[in-house]
Amino acid sequence: MSAVLFDEPGPRARRRTAIWSIVAGVVLAALVVLVVLQLASRGIFDADRWDIFTETGESWEALLRRGLGATLRAAGVAAVIALTAGAVVAVARTSTVPWIRVPAAVAIELFRGLPVLLLILFAALALGVSIFNAVVIGLSLYNTAVIAEILRAGIQSLPSGQREAALAVGLTSGQTLRLVLLPQAVRRMLPSLVSQLVVLLKDTSLGFVVGYAELLRTSRELRDFFGSRYIFSIFIVTAAIYIGVNFTLSRVAAWLERRGTPRAAGRRPPMFFDAGRNA
């Protein structure tokens, strides 16, 4: 029997909800129009405020090739390291051996509790590595801890019969984690993993502090070069690039989830061991 968490709204409640939704939409639209009119009165939308993007390709080259390229390089390397190390740490965190489980838990709590910026500064100042490596190290350490916890939550959400059946057919605890539980946890937690990768991509902007020439720092250099007159246009273009990249990443993840999850096709996802399957 399914539990009812809330009462189904009646006709009056649905009518009030519709009215308030319309009122909120009208107010929001009015605010947007007010902001646009205010910006237009200041000449923000004049053609000469956007000519650095319409009359020459140097600004686009700086933002896309140098800025976005540096952002994607740091985010790509850090993502590969964090996903790989996160899976290893998640397996260690769920181990039944205390001398494996306890250090993994300590590492997760340590790096998850530290700001990414502090880790980047530590790598740059204390370790003396290059700026690129400092950004990658800081992003990798923090996101490894977060991804490990995401995967651990996915492993713990699986039915206990999965582990028990795997152990019953002779698999060791390590083989059960690697071959049975972890692949299912990755598929189940894919939306959370993608969300964390989006956060990782945006956190590359923290490299601005140590002088890494990522997208945000490149836009700041354009502002300094062309003057504050173009600050709004540079901000809008930079924000559009960030939104476009993150939206693309989310769409790719949704496509992978549809292909990899049988439930999306109307079928129950098969577990490694199906208790109802006859041998």
Provide a descriptive summary of the structure in words.
By secondary structure, this protein is an all-alpha fold. It has a domain of 189 residues: MetI-like fold (Orthogonal Bundle), CATH 1.10.3720.10. The chain has 11 helices and no strands. α3 packs across α6 and α5 packs across α6. The protein is flat, with a radius of gyration of 25 Å.
In short:
The chain is mostly helical. Helices cover 73% and strands 0% of the residues.
Helix content: over 70%
Mind summarizing the main beta sheet? none
SSE order in H/E notation? HHHHHHHHHHH
**The CATH topology of the domain at 72-260, please?**
MetI-like fold
Question: In terms of structural class, how would the helical and strand content be classed?
Answer: mainly alpha
Would you identify the regions where 5 or more consecutive residues have pLDDT less than 50? Answer: 263-273, 275-279
Under the CATH scheme, which class of the domain at 72-260?
Mainly Alpha
Query: What CATH architecture of the domain at 72-260 would you give?
Result: Orthogonal Bundle
- Output mean pLDDT: 83
Count of runs of 4 or more consecutive helical residues: 11
**The CATH superfamily title of the domain at 72-260:** MetI-like
| General form | flat
The count of strands amounts to 0
Instruction: Please state the CA-atom Rg, rounded to the nearest Å.
Output: 25 Å
User: What proportion of the residues form beta strands (DSSP E)?
Assistant: under 5%
Q: What is the CA–CA distance across the termini?
A: 31 Å
